[in-house]
UniProtKB/TrEMBL annotation:
<dbReference type="GO" id="GO:0005634">
    <property type="term" value="C:nucleus"/>
</dbReference>
<protein>
    <recommendedName>
        <fullName>ZF-HD dimerization-type domain-containing protein</fullName>
    </recommendedName>
</protein>
<dbReference type="GO" id="GO:0000976">
    <property type="term" value="F:transcription cis-regulatory region binding"/>
</dbReference>
<dbReference type="InterPro" id="IPR009057">
    <property type="entry name" value="Homeodomain-like_sf"/>
</dbReference>
<feature type="compositionally biased region" description="Basic residues">
    <location>
        <begin position="72"/>
        <end position="84"/>
    </location>
</feature>
<feature type="region of interest" description="Disordered">
    <location>
        <begin position="56"/>
        <end position="84"/>
    </location>
</feature>
<dbReference type="GO" id="GO:0050793">
    <property type="term" value="P:regulation of developmental process"/>
</dbReference>
<keyword id="KW-0371">Homeobox</keyword>
<comment type="subunit">
    <text>Homo- and heterodimer with other ZFHD proteins.</text>
</comment>
<keyword id="KW-0539">Nucleus</keyword>
<feature type="domain" description="ZF-HD dimerization-type">
    <location>
        <begin position="6"/>
        <end position="53"/>
    </location>
</feature>
<keyword id="KW-0238">DNA-binding</keyword>
<keyword id="KW-0805">Transcription regulation</keyword>
<dbReference type="GO" id="GO:0008270">
    <property type="term" value="F:zinc ion binding"/>
</dbReference>
<dbReference type="Pfam" id="PF04770">
    <property type="entry name" value="ZF-HD_dimer"/>
</dbReference>
<comment type="function">
    <text>Putative transcription factor.</text>
</comment>
<keyword id="KW-0804">Transcription</keyword>
Length: 142
């Protein structure tokens, strides 16, 4: 369970003039009056204007669970890097020809793109990504 404490006041005192100024209240002090419990005694602002800080409480551990497990040192999970897709020169030439025929836009020609990708041996996502990345490099403007 996390406890919370309220820190400095963040209320902008000069909002009407277009500036940002805070009053300098560094900590929320609840008022003594029961009707004003949520107002700070120092700056008279509501508690919601003060920055909320969450304090984490760790659960108490019993002596039986505090011992290390058998197996030695814990290792970090290996992070796998996404493998970059490599195209052959032939695939690049065919993709360039197809993209220029399409006008570097797919539009309503999904069936043609799907058959082209099956013919060349690439995924549609890979072709769309290649088009997006190479459009400026190869596109000729009229």
């Amino acid at each position: 369970m996390a406890a919370e404490e309220y820190r400095e006041c963040l209320k902008n005192q000069c909002v009407a003039s277009g500036f940002h100024t805070v009053d300098g209240c560094q900590f929320f002090f609840p008022g003594n009056d029961p009707s004003a419990v949520f107002n700070c005694a120092a700056c008279s602002c509501h508690r919601s204007f003060h920055r909320k800080n969450f304090l984490k409480r760790e659960p108490e551990r019993s002596p039986s669970t505090s011992r290390p497990r058998a197996g030695g040192i814990k290792r970090k999970k290996e992070q796998f890097r996404r493998r970059r897709r490599r195209f052959t020169a032939e695939q690049k030439e065919k993709m360039l020809a197809c993209a220029s025929l399409l006008g570097w836009r797919v539009g309503w020609l999904r069936a043609e793109v799907e058959s082209f990708c099956e013919e060349v041996g690439i995924e549609e996502k890979a072709f769309f990504n290649w088009m997006r990345n190479n459009k400026r490099k190869y596109e000729t403007k009229p």
